[in-house]
Amino acid sequence: MSLVFEDHSFDFELLRALGYSVSGGADIGECLSTASRIREGDTQSWYTEWKRTAERVHAFADASLARGERISARESYLRASNYYRCAEFYLHITPDDARSLPTWEQSRSCFRQALALFESPYEEVEIPYEGTTLPGYFYRVDASETPRPTLILHGGYDSTGEELYCEHVYAALARGYHCLAFEGPGQGSVIRQQHVPFRPDWEAVITPVVDYVISRPEVDPSRLVLLGISLGGYLAPRAAAYEHRLAACVAIDGIYSFGEAIEKMMSLPPTGHSSQEQEAVANALAHAQSQQNTLLRWSIAQGMWTFAASSPFEVMQEARHYTMQGCAEQITCPLLVCDAQEDLFFQGQARKLYDAVTCPKTYLAFSSEEGAGAHCHFGALTRLNQELFAWLDQTLG
After folding, report:
1. What CATH number labels 122-255+322-396?
2. Least confident piece of the model among 185-189, 204-208, 266-270
3. SS3 call for 177
4. Catalytic residue among 189, 230, 257, 299
5. Which residues make beta-bridge pairs with 152?
6. For this protein, what is any one GO molecular function term (predicted)?
7. Entry pTM
8. Looking at per-residue confidence, does 1 or 382 come out higher?
């Protein structure tokens, strides 16, 4: 299903932006108008037009707030946050692009201005982690200290902690779940400001997060759920293999081997630990193929940045460590593995994860016919959340 662009990456990112309209993070007309001004495959045009829309909606928010119109201001700040996120998305193709950090900061600032106008209580939190802290937002259903089931959620290869509200937090709060949305190594402000890259042993990240969450009186420690999105579909199950205080784990969508997916995306043969000559050939092929492929060009650049890798070859070498081989069978809590019929990034990986685990498990495939076949089911978040929370309610009792 194509919306506007022939470029698969552009069209998917437009769908992602549009998808947040169900939670107030976008207006359909604003997104389509922005897309109509973007030149096909031109990442600079993408930045310019999304930034233009973000700034316009940001001005709407400021004007509404000045007039005391809290709801209108909140709605506009939330949309502006998403549009600034879109504007920043492809800037990492160029290392150290000076526009990247301030554009991301605008996205985060607008989100926090929106949060300050929300009715439900929340806190910005800092979670102790290996001599530093991980940033997060703790969202509460209400102001009481009644222990409730709590959803710990994080994104993947490129997510921000702020956009997690528009994906699942709003739906969780409506159903009586507290939420901790946080950013780990390789994500959000942790990579942008602390320069801490991804790590494959995600249990080292999740264990201190669980320590923090169960210290809160409003959290029921017996009903703790970990949810990972996109690359988080590897990270969350990996953590669940070693962190056994979780009552359930959700992978949207499941990944068994990130290295296998990256090598398939790059259309390169597995390289192994090869000679310098083979490494040079792999880098040259990746560079040549990426010149006409926005998705591949962005994926390589994103990996070099978030893995602290110096070349496409190093990205592939690092990605090979992100596998559930040897640990999938150690998951003991119930696991929900979601799959997308036309996943742009990880086709076939969810089924491999599901087949490998031996814990109580559920496989939930979403089809293109129902409009939910895209990666992480963008464009069908209402449908996804209906199924997700039906499973959680049943699993947690």
Report:
1. 3.40.50.1820
2. 266-270
3. coil
4. 230
5. 180, 226
6. hydrolase activity
7. 0.95
8. 382
